[in-house]
Structures are given as C-alpha cells and as structure tokens.
Amino acid sequence: MNPxxxxxxxxxxRQFFGRSAxxxxxxxxxxxxxxxxxxxxGSGGLAGFPNFAPKAKRVIYLMQGGAPSHVDLxxxxxxxxxxxxxxxxxxxxxxxxxxxxxxxxxxxPMLPAIRKFERYGDCGRMLSPLISHxxxxxxxxxxxxxxxxxxxxxxxxxxFFLTGSQIPGRPSMGAWLSxxxxxxxxxxxxxxxxxxxxxxxxxxxxFFDYYWGSGFIPSKHQGVRFRGQGDPVLYLSNPVGISPDxxxxxxxxxAAMNHLKFQEYGDPEIETRISQYEMAxxxxxSVPELTDISTEPRHILDMYGPDVERKGSFAxxxxxxxxxxxxxxxxxxxxxxxxxxxxxxxxxxxxxxxxTDQPSAALVKDLKQxxxxxxxxxxxxxxxxxxxxxxxxISNKLKHGRDHHGRCFSLWMAGGGIKPGAQYGKTxxxxxxxxxxxxxxxxxxxxxxxxxxxxxxxxxxxxQGRRFRLTDIHGHxxxxxxx
Length: 483
What we know:
By secondary structure, this protein is an alpha/beta fold.
C-alpha cells in the first residue's frame, strides 16, 4: 500500500479530535464559550471583551526596576528627622524577615528622607524636590502610598507585578490584555517593550524575557522588544539583494504552506507564526517612521530633557511611548533599572531621579496636551520600596543606603480614569507598615484591568486542567482610585 495513503487511514483518536478542532467544532465552541480556541484562530479579541465600557484604551507602564525609595520620594514622614539614628522598634518591625544584606546588621537606625519634601500643585501634594518635575504634574497624578507585596528580591518582585506570580512562567499583563482585547493597530504589535538602565550601571538587575512573555497562552501575545541600538527590532530590514516584492512573494508562499500545516495539526502556534510574519512585514514600514524623532518640534524634545537625543535612554523611550500610543499600541512597557541604592543612596538617588523624573512628567504632559491622557493609563513605580532604616553606616555621608522593603511602598498613576490630584492610603509614622487602605499587588492588577473594561475574574485561560488569570485567585478593584 502507498505509505501516504496508509498514513491517512491510520488516524488515532487524538489526531481525529485535533483535526476536528479546526473546523465546525472551533466555531461552535467559540460562539458558546468565547473560548481560547476562537482567540487562537486569529480573532481580534475574546467574545464579550471588554466586559463593560472602559475608561482606558491603553496602558503605559513605567516600571522602575530596583525599587525607588518611597521614604525619599513619595511618602513624607517629617517625624523621622526627630528619630534619626534611633533603632527601629521591635513592635514596628513585628518579626518581618529581612534580606541577607541587613538580617545580620547589628543596628537598624532610622534614616529620614535625603531632602525635605515640598508642596506641589493646587492639591498641595508633598513630594521630594528630587522629583520636582513630577511635582509639576501633581494635580494630574494619584499617589498610592499603601502598596504592599510578599516579594523580597528583585526578579520575583518584578515578576509578581507583571505576571501575578513570583515564579516565572505566567503570562504578563500586556500579554493578557492582547489576548483578551486583541490588537487595535494593523501595523504595530499590541504589546511593545523598551528597556533602559542608569549609565553608571550602579545595580545588577537584568531584564528577563519572561517579564513580557506570554507564558502558556499563544505566543503571538508576548511583548515585542524594541532595542535601543541598531534596528529597533531584530531582522526588521531585508537582507542585501532582497527586494520588497520578493519578500512579499516569499511570505505569501510561506503562509500558504503554514496554512496547510495548520489544517493538519490545528496548532495555534502555527497561526502565531503566520501572523507574526505578516506583522513583521508591515513593521518594516511603520517602525522606522515611528522611531524617527526628527519630525518632533524642538519644544517637545526639550520637554523630555537632553537625554532624549540618546538612543536607548529612558527619555527617548518615553517619547517613543507617546508615539506608540498615538499609533494604537495597547500596552507599552518601559523598564528602567538603577534604583537599587544599598550603599550609594546619597549620590545615586539624585542621579536616578534626574534621569527619570523629567521624562516621566513630560510623557504625562505630552499625552494631556494631545487629548490622549484621558484614555491612557500611565503607571510609575517599582517592585517594592526601601527600608526607612539605613543599611550600612549612616554616619558615612557617601556610603550608606536602604534595603528592600515590601511591607509598604508607593507608586503613582495618571489618566485612564484615575482620580487626578489624589492620594490614597497611609503608612505608619515610621513608613514601615500600611496603616490605612492597603493595596496589594493583585488589587492593583484588578484595578488596572477594570479601567480597561475587564472583569479580572472573567479573563482566564485553561492550562493543565486549571483556569488561570492574572490575579490568580485574589484581587479586589480599588474603586476609590477611580474617577
């Protein structure tokens, strides 16, 4: 017998159902369940999503890796000046575990903010003068001073914020939104990531791919990383001697072959391959135009600061984020490392604030003047905070710092339905514990999803016999943050 015919006749039960999944079965299940199969087959988003009218259409997440010090920047505790050098009371610490960097430290002396805070905006927000540009948008932002997390080290802390789990492998927030809401641009990915770091390389945090990965949902939803040097996206340019017409012809033939393979196996990753090839082809035109800032007026470039001229800088990425928002990208994730001041707080904190404060504030101003802020949610914050006690010898004016602290810390949000000029939550007099209106990482995630019109309990994906979601089995929307 012909081996090809014999192969066709000897289907297993598994192969039969695998093939069936690409036909009428898919359509029926997708219509009845709004299932993952419908999304995997290339629809714009899941049926029924968004679940209600969204306040935000897109998110720009300014993730400050290394953990900015809430004590020095956003959570004003004037009483700490009177407590300078005093030991952290055991009743305040309450048995909290410390990292290995301070667990064996004989003393835990209280350390007030490097600079005394000043009042900004009509709302009278107290902020550090180190972030005076953020003070200039005080009436547009909502400061949350009662964040808390279980994470105690950087990678698990960032992973927790971005994926809902400290263990790598879950889909990131941007991937969840791409999966649930689909893309809103034909020429750009729905999820874009850019990274930067302090020029001094003062801390060793790395950017792991799983920070913007898709986990177990189809990989077409993972973030596309734009590089700071060379082509923004690898292999974006055609090889020498390959014309656009030839490239188009090759892609058409490749797509036809992949479609045949998809009909045979029904693997959603084949569909991903087809769609990503097509997106890459369209990006060959759209991305060079996007990253060319020569058309920006001088006053806009000046607003973002001098570092905007340097490719790969946080300032340049902030301006690019605004341009991505204009072009319909749904989730824009900027990751900047350099806030890990264990022994160089007196010097490096000011440098880090100078590099990031002006561009962050400029982004909010730029979005607002273009009418984009009202439906763009901007988030600024790290994976946890810093201890209100000092690490090392605080009498050494140049060589001391603060350790990791997850019991309480601060972040701010703007636009996208967030109450402007507001402050939420309080910490105790030591800036060590949440005293009022705690906001857990899962609560923060549920609130972000809600602003995008998503019930965080309904956006799920079935994997290995369980339905997963960004907020795991936790999370409550913080309605008091919403305008």
